[in-house]
Write a structure and sequence with these properties.
By secondary structure, the chain is α/β, with parallel strands linked by helices. 44% of the residues lie in helices and 20% in strands. Strands 2-1-3-12-11-4-5-10-8-9 form a ten-stranded mixed β-sheet, with helices on both faces. Strands 6-7 form a two-stranded antiparallel ribbon. It has a two-stranded parallel sheet with strand order 13-14. The protein is globular and about 65 Å long. Bound molecules: 3-isopropylmalic acid and manganese (II) ion.
Length: 363
Amino acid sequence: MKATIAVLEGDGIGPEIMAEGLKVLDAIAARYNHEFEYIRCAFGAAAYFAEGSACPDETREICDEADTIIKGPVGLAVREMDRIPIEERPELAVLEMRERYTTFANYRPAKLPASLANFSPLRKERLGEGIDILMIRELTGDVYFGKKREGKDTGMQFAQDDCVYTEEQIRRVATTAFEEASSRNVPLTNIDKANVLATSRFWRAVVEEIASSFPEVPLQHVLVDNAAYQLVIDPTQFNGVMLLGNMNGDILSDQAGGIIGSLGLMPSACVGPEKVFVEPVHGAAPDIAGTGQANPYSMIGSAALMLEKGLGLDEESNLIWDCLFSVFEQGYVTAELAAAVKQGTVLSTSEFGDRVVSAIQAA
Ligand code: IPM
Ligand code: MN
């Protein structure tokens, strides 16, 4: 297959983990006779300082034209971020991209096989057969996209972010979550705050209605505060698909990263009707940029998700996942995991990518 891929390296560790993602894509292209054309474009805080926009027009045009998009994290050190006006912040450029391509379903898989249980800060006994939770986070609504107001009312200063969900927004992401649960033959856990929020009650009602078309999928509802607790006490009870609104998904997916040992193990895919872009869940970690300590797993995993969701290359995607785990299973670790694991050989960012490539070539 021939595909054009827009490459947005982002800030901080973005360029170095992107290099590993592309290295792995090249190995896949060589093995399966694909032709991937990368078109690099500016995006993020550095792009703002260089070109006056976190997402320059040219980047937008390239992304519009590309078959799919791979993106690194954005953001620099606080003192630099403070020099960017609120309306120009790179986080907003990320939200704009999600809106532009209506990527309503954000796949955030949290996987930790039992063989790698020592990555987790939780005791081994709590991890049973291993963690395999596919978080599906809604990505186009909630407080992130509601009306914002700041001002003074009867002398009192206030700020307001409206939380809004339309039926269509809930319906499409819930349908996606049920379809995934059905095809994987796993249960679905819906997360909300229906005991307090009107948007959550509506969310749950729509989820219930869609559930009637998927009688084969076991469904449970868990309130978000309790889910945060249960995730730590007994994470494997959520093995399967977890459906979350935008904010709940933002928060609990970071927690999932903590539970499996590192946010560096959390890739993601933003999936919409006509475009898929992938990005790691974590930030740009400017403090370790350029030191070779960044874990490229999240970016390589994102590349695997891009092949599956963006280009329909399931076999290639599965091979990347197998090779990613095989590197860890051979006893190698990345820098941020070394302290917890206390054994194994620590690999630099590029050494980890090289090992994944060798595994692809040897498979
Ligand atoms: C994430 C990030 C983003 C979000 C930021 C960068 C806008 O935290 O992808 O989880 O809040 O969704
Ligand atoms: Mn986040």
